[in-house]
C-alpha cells in the first residue's frame, strides 16, 4: 500500500511488523526495503513502497541491533493518551459476539484503558501467564529480526500511536494495532506456543526462500483469521480485531468468502492490502492450528513451487466453504 486511502470504507492497520507488503504481486517482491542506515539499524518500509519510513529509528542511538528500543513513554502527549482511550473504547464495545472467546477473556489483561499502557506493566502479567514478553520497536523491522524475536517469545510492539486524522485508517502498524490486536492472544497458552513456532519456522523459511509463502499463512491466520466457535464465527486475527470496520464485515457480511483453512491452499493465495479481505480462512480451534502447522514445511514449500498462485478471490472446487 503506497498511496493514500483505501477504496472501500475505512480500514485500520493490518500489517504484521517485519512484513512489508506486496500488492497482489508475484512472489519475491516483498522483502523488506531498507532505507539508509541509522546507527546499528536501518529504517524499513513496505516492499515496493516509496513511502518514507514511519517511526524514529535514530532515537539517540537507543535502538539496539535486534531492533528493540525502550518504549518512549515520555514522548506520548495527553492527546495521544486520549486517542488511545477512544480507540480502546470503540473497539472493546464491538468485540462481544464478534471476537473469539479467548480474546475476550484476555482483553482485560492489557490493563489500563484510558491511556497508553507501559509495556512493563503488561509484561508483569504476560510473562507469568505464558512466558512471553512484549518489546518496543521503532516501526517495521526486517524479517530475520522479526522471526528471531518471536522464536524467543518476544513480540515486537511499535511504540508510537497514530494521529487523530488516522483514527479509522493507518498504513503502518502502530501501538494500538500491536497491543489491542496481537497481545491478548499471547495470554493464551496454545496460541502463545504457536507464535513461537511460527518465529522458528520463519527463520527456516528464510533459509529456504519461502518467506512469501509463509507470510501468506501469517496474513490469513494471525492477521485475518476467523475461528468457528460454539456460537458461530468469530475473529481472532489482529488486523480484524483492531479495525472497527473489518471486525463487523469479516464476521457478519455476506460478501466475503469463508473457507476452511488448508495450508497449501492458503499459502498459494495472494492477498489484498488496501481493502477488506475477499477471502477469510477459518479454523476450528487454536489447537487445530497448532497441530496443522507443527509438521516440517520443507516438502510443502517444494510442492508450492510447482503450483500456480491464486488470486485473493479465487474459489476452487475442493474448497470447503463455510456458511455463516
Ligand atoms: N512447522 C513449520 C515448519 O516446519 C513452522 C511453522 C510453525 C509455521 C507454526 C507456521 C506456524 O516450517
Ligand atoms: Fe499485525
Q: Estimate percent helicity.
A: 25-40%
Query: What is the gyration radius calculated from CA atoms?
Result: 18 Å
Main pleated-sheet profile = 4 strands, mixed
What share of the residues does DSSP label as strand, in percent? 5-15%
Distance between the termini: 30 Å
Question: Are there runs of 5+ residues with pLDDT below 50, and where?
Answer: 1-31
N-to-C order of helices and strands: EEHHHEHEHHHEEHHEHEHH
In order across it, which strands form the biggest sheet?
A: 6-5-8-7
Describe this structure in words.
The protein has helices spanning 78-94, 101-106, 119-130, 143-151, 175-182, 189-208, 211-223, 238-241, 244-252, 263-267, 286-293, 298-304, and strands at 33-34, 44-45, 133-137, 154-158, 226-229, 232-235, 257-260, 279-283. With 324 residues, the protein is α/β, with parallel strands linked by helices. The chain has a four-stranded mixed sheet with strand order 6-5-8-7. A two-stranded antiparallel ribbon has the order 1-2. Residues 1-31 have low confidence and may be disordered. Phenylalanine (PHE) binds next to α6. Residues 15-16, 173, 177, 181-182, 223, 238-239 line the site of fe (iii) ion (FE).
Set out the fold topology.
Layout: E1 33-34, E2 44-45, H1 78-94, H2 101-106, H3 119-130, E3 133-137, H4 143-151, E4 154-158, H5 175-182, H6 189-208, H7 211-223, E5 226-229, E6 232-235, H8 238-241, H9 244-252, E7 257-260, H10 263-267, E8 279-283, H11 286-293, H12 298-304
Parallel strand pairs: 3-4, 5-8, 7-8
Antiparallel strand pairs: 1-2, 5-6
Helix pairs in contact: 4-6, 6-7, 6-11
The chain binds phenylalanine and fe (iii) ion.
Amino acid at each position: 500500500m503506497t498511496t493514500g486511502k483505501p477504496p472501500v470504507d475505512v480500514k485500520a492497520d493490518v500489517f504484521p511488523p517485519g512484513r512489508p507488503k506486496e500488492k497482489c504481486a508475484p512472489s519475491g517482491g516483498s522483502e523488506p526495503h531498507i532505507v539508509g542506515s541509522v546507527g546499528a539499524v536501518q529504517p524499513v518500509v513496505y516492499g515496493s513502497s516509496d513511502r518514507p519510513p514511519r517511526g524514529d529509528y535514530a532515537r539517540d542511538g537507543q535502538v539496539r541491533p535486534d531492533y528493540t528500543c525502550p518504549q518512549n513513554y515520555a514522548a506520548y502527549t495527553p492527546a495521544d493518551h486520549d486517542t488511545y482511550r477512544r480507540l480502546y473504547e470503540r473497539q472493546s464495545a464491538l468485540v462481544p459476539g464478534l471476537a473469539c472467546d479467548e480474546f475476550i477473556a484476555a482483553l482485560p489483561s492489557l490493563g489500563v484503558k484510558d491511556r497508553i499502557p507501559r509495556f512493563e506493566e503488561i509484561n508483569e502479567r504476560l510473562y507469568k501467564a505464558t512466558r512471553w514478553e512484549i518489546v518496543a520497536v521503532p516501526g517495521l523491522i526486517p524479517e530475520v529480526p522479526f522471526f528471531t524475536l518471536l522464536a524467543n517469545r518476544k513480540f515486537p510492539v511499535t511504540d508510537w500511536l497514530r494521529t487523530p486524522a488516522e483514527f479509522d485508517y493507518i498504513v503502518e502498524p502502530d501501538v494500538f494495532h500491536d497491543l489491542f490486536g496481537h497481545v491478548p492472544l499471547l495470554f493464551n497458552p496454545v496460541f502463545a506456543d504457536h507464535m513461537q513456532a511460527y518465529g522458528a519456522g520463519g527463520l527456516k523459511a528464510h533459509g529456504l526462500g519461502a518467506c512469501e509463502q509463509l507470510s501468506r499463512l501469517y496474513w490469513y491466520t494471525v492477521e485475518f483469521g476467523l475461528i468457528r466457535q460454539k456460537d458461530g464465527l468469530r475473529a481472532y486475527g489482529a488486523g480484524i480485531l483492531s479495525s472497527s470496520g473489518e471486525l463487523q464485515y469479516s464476521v457478519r457480511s455476506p460478501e466475503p468468502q469463508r473457507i476452511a483453512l488448508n495450508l497449501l491452499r492458503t499459502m498459494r493465495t495472494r492477498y489484498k492490502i488496501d481493502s477488506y479481505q475477499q477471502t477469510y480462512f477459518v479454523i476450528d480451534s487454536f489447537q487445530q492450528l497448532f497441530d496443522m502447522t507443527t509438521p516440517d514445511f520443507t516438502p510443502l514449500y517444494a510442492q508450492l513451487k510447482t503450483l500456480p498462485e491464486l488470486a485473493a478471490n479465487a474459489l476452487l472446487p475442493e474448497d470447503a466453504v463455510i456458511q455463516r
